[in-house]
Design a protein that fits this description.
Blueprint: H1 8-22, H2 29-36, H3 40-47, H4 50-64, H5 75-92, H6 94-102, H7 106-123, H8 128-154, H9 162-167, H10 175-182, H11 187-203
Helix pairs in contact: 2-3, 4-6, 5-7, 5-8, 5-11, 7-8, 8-11
Region (Disordered): 208-232
Pfam families: TetR_C_1, TetR_N
Domain HTH tetR-type: 5-65
Length: 232
């Protein structure tokens, strides 16, 4: 027997669950109706056709990512908390994020998190290009890390595996390094340390060129010092 009452949010919740489990291709109107215990005509009445449903799911995913709120007692912690929250949000809904990307809404999806980063950059005293650099660097770090995690999780079994590759290097100059690289990576810890190092470096401000910097090619004496990453 078909359900007598059904809300648009219930339809979107069930559709999102199907996409999470099976990807966008696994979302059919008949399958969704069966999951909800209702008629296909009821689904159409609430959300329109399948393309309209996918659009609604993409819009809701964008809205969900807007709920990120910074936490922490200092700028490094607060900016880092945005990075951690964005990573969690992306990892929790990979198929929905892919669907958002396919619909050309990627920039809109990241905008709320980037606005939060802008506010934190301003609060930390960064302005202009330095603030923009922090926003983009943190965003790229999160997205790149999530993509690498997903690729590692879905990769075929490697032969030789990391432990075999690095296990043969124990007689080198740094056996502790080889042993550490042979062990499975601690993903959470690695992400936390890399984000913290990135944010601390960006908040520290332009570095002063040192005598160890590379000089311009062709300089034959008294020439310019090689340009650092913050040089104008």
């Amino acid at each position: 027997m078909a359900r007598q009452t059904l809300s648009r949010e219930e339809v979107l919740d069930a559709a999102a669950a199907l996409v999470r489990a099976h990807g966008p291709d696994g979302l059919t109107m008949r399958g969704l109706a069966a999951a909800l215990g209702t008629a296909v005509t009821s689904i159409y009445w609430h959300v329109g056709n399948r393309e309209s449903l996918l659009d609604a799911l993409a819009e809701r995913t964008v809205a969900d990512l807007g709920a990120i709120r910074p936490r922490g007692a200092d700028p490094v912690e607060r900016i880092g908390s945005v990075a951690h929250a964005l990573r969690r949000a992306l990892r929790e809904r990979p198929h929905l994020v892919a669907m958002v990307h396919e619909r050309g809404l990627t920039e809109r999806m990241f905008l709320p998190a980037q606005r939060a980063l802008v506010r934190e950059a301003h609060a930390a005293g960064l302005r202009g290009e330095r603030a923009a650099e922090l926003v983009r660097a943190v965003t790229f770090q999160v997205v790149g890390y999530v993509l690498l995690e997903r690729n590692r999780e879905r990769a075929p079994v490697q032969s030789p595996a990391e432990e075999e590759l690095w296990g043969a290097e124990t007689d080198g100059a740094d056996p502790l390094l080889a042993r550490a690289l042979a062990a499975p990576p601690e993903s959470e810890r690695l992400f936390a340390s890399s984000v913290r190092a990135l944010v601390e470096g960006l908040l520290a401000g332009p570095r002063t060129p040192s005598s160890g910097d590379i000089t311009d090619i062709g300089d034959t004496g008294g020439g310019a010092v090689g340009r650092g990453p913050y040089s104008q």
